[in-house]
Design a protein that fits this description.
Strand order of the largest sheet: 7-6-5-4-3-10-9-8
CATH architecture: Alpha-Beta Barrel
Largest sheet: 8 strands, parallel
Distance between the termini: 51 Å
CATH topology: TIM Barrel
CATH class: Alpha Beta
């Protein structure tokens, strides 16, 4: 889990190094269209499902929509709160509400074996490998039997063993042994391969949060340890298992969407190659990782940030370059990181505000994402070309309708929250994938900041980054094209209920000549699809 995502070390050497690389961001691309506009093609609005959001504490209803599944090209892991509310009645419900896998901490006792959860001989979990996900936090390596302090403090990389000799009585106090013992996870599901024990999860997510170092001289040691950990784990993964980590990522915007990020290079822990140090060989670092980077051994990157309370606050302005903005941040993080790395992207998502004493109303995770934001996260995120997401919560099981306690700590808030935001999130997934899942077949084209729009009736057209849409205070629009089909998402973030905005969208590539006008109201999440007409004289592809 990750609570404080704002860089509190702004005055340290590491942070000042990062900020020093920023320069002015790209200029908006604006073109003047001469002459009369061609005829327009209306978008077919995607249906909305009418439902009454829950007002019960510690409860949410997955049946605000009907059955739908995620396309095979996408992945969504449930590591949120309250699966216990529904799993006994229908264990497969979440897999028919857009989720493709469940984190181990959210599995029911019927779904895995452990020392305290015995199973009969020959038992096999009902969960397919693709439906299983494992999150590895600091405690796995920091606690017994490994006692690896580096797991909680990156500055201890220089004193951490890569491999300890077998005869050493502390041989388990090494990263190599900690990775090896993960192969025993297959016994928890009763499906170990006959020839070699391998981990049989579909996804493995690291959440160590030890990536920072206080001394810049420790960076090489930290890089070496991260590269070795991932390289070593790979030999214990099943062929279908994918692995990644909440950090490092090529660039972490910490919830901001600043223009200068587009000129930044990938951060050191992601891109720096492994290299021997004075003591690395003595601690077992092998030569075969020299020259390799952390990015070489992961299947996906995990850019994305949780929200602070200001992103949920409709009473303040959000349009300055340094202002916090829910949709600016969501899109910006993906736009920047897809430029810096071709690795697939899976974001951690949380529908409550992150705890941070630096922001008003953020001292506890007590504020749920407003309806349009919760739904919009579930829609706009997938317009970036991202591969997957992980819905996380600091609560696991929920008990509905509990009395409000006199004093609540940060970890005990789950039962005292209203989880209607989950219902809006699932509704957004349903609108996108129930009605347009066929477009996500691997042949789609994500326009991202190449989406071409006009707010002056077609006199001028622009292609804006997320930051530029934020600072120019224009409607946010993103589009996906697949053959002659175009899917458009649009909204006016933080719009008042009475507010009305109009934006035009065009696509004049690949032999198509598509123009349309979208009428927006309030901050509603608009979603619409159309069949694009061919431009006059355009030839069909053979």
């Amino acid at each position: 889990m990750r609570f404080i995502l704002i860089p509190l070390l702004a005055g340290t050497l590491g942070a000042s190094y990062w900020y020093a690389r920023y320069v002015r961001g790209p200029e908006p691309i604006t073109t003047l269209h001469q002459g009369d506009l061609p005829s327009q093609t209306a978008l077919n609005p995607t249906p909305r499902q009418a439902f009454t959001p829950t007002t019960r504490k510690g409860y949410w209803n997955p049946d605000v929509v009907g059955d739908f599944t995620l396309p095979a090209t996408k992945s969504l892991t449930f590591s949120g709160a309250g699966r216990n509310l529904h799993v006994d009645q229908d264990w497969s419900k979440l897999f028919r509400r857009g989720f493709s896998s469940v984190d181990k901490t959210r599995m029911s006792p019927d779904e895995f074996r452990s020392e305290w959860n015995k199973k009969p001989e020959g038992w096999t979990s009902r969960l397919k490998p693709s439906q299983r996900a494992l999150t590895i936090g600091q405690g796995y390596m920091a606690d017994a039997p490994f006692h690896i302090g580096w797991s909680r403090s990156g500055d201890k990389a220089s004193e951490t063993w890569y491999v300890r000799p077998w005869g050493d009585q502390n041989y388990k106090n090494s990263v190599s042994w900690a990775m090896l013992e993960l192969n025993g996870e297959c016994t928890n599901f009763g499906d170990c391969p006959p020839d070699k024990r391998l981990l049989t999860y579909g996804k493995v997510f690291f959440d160590l949060e030890n990536e920072g170092v206080g001394n810049v001289l420790n960076r090489q040691e930290q890089v070496n340890m991260y590269v070795f950990m991932m390289k070593t784990l790979r030999q214990w993964l099943s062929p279908y298992t994918e692995v990644g980590s909440i950090a490092p990522v090529p660039l972490n915007g910490y919830g901001y969407s600043r223009a200068r990020d587009f000129n930044a290079s990938a951060e050191w822990l992601w891109a720096m190659p492994a290299k021997h140090t004075e003591t690395s060989r003595q601690r077992g670092m092998p030569d075969d990782i020299v020259g390799k980077t952390f990015a070489d051994f992961v299947d996906f990157q995990m850019p994305g940030t949780y929200y602070m309370y200001p992103e949920f606050d409709y009473s303040i302005t959000h349009n300055d370059d340094g202002a916090r903005h829910w949709l600016g941040a969501l899109l910006h993080e993906q736009e920047v990181n897809r430029r810096l790395s071709p690795k697939k992207r899976i974001a951690w998502q949380w529908l409550f505000n992150t705890q941070s004493s630096e922001f008003n109303n953020s001292e506890k995770a007590k504020n749920a994402a407003p309806p349009a934001i919760a739904e919009g996260i579930a829609v706009f995120y997938w317009f970036t070309g991202a591969y997957g997401a992980l819905l996380w919560d600091d609560a696991t099981d929920l008990k509905p309708d509990q009395p409000t306690p006199a004093e609540v700590n940060q970890q005990g808030l789950g039962n005292d929250r209203v989880y209607a935001c989950y219902e809006h999130y699932v509704h957004g997934l349903w609108r996108l994938f129930k009605h347009h899942g066929d477009l996500f077949n691997g042949r789609e084209k994500y326009l991202n900041e190449q989406t071409e729009c006009s707010v002056d009736g077609g006199k001028t057209w622009y292609k804006y980054t997320a930051n530029q849409m934020k600072t120019q205070d224009v409607p946010f629009v993103r589009a996906i094209v697949n053959g002659n089909q175009i899917l458009v998402a649009a909204t006016q973030p933080y719009g008042k209920a009475s507010q009305r905005e109009q934006v035009m969208v065009r696509y004049i590539e690949d032999g198509y000549q598509f123009y349309t006008t979208i009428n927006l109201k309030g901050d509603e999440i608009y979603l619409g699809r159309a069949t694009m007409p061919k431009a006059a004289g355009a030839r069909k592809k053979a």
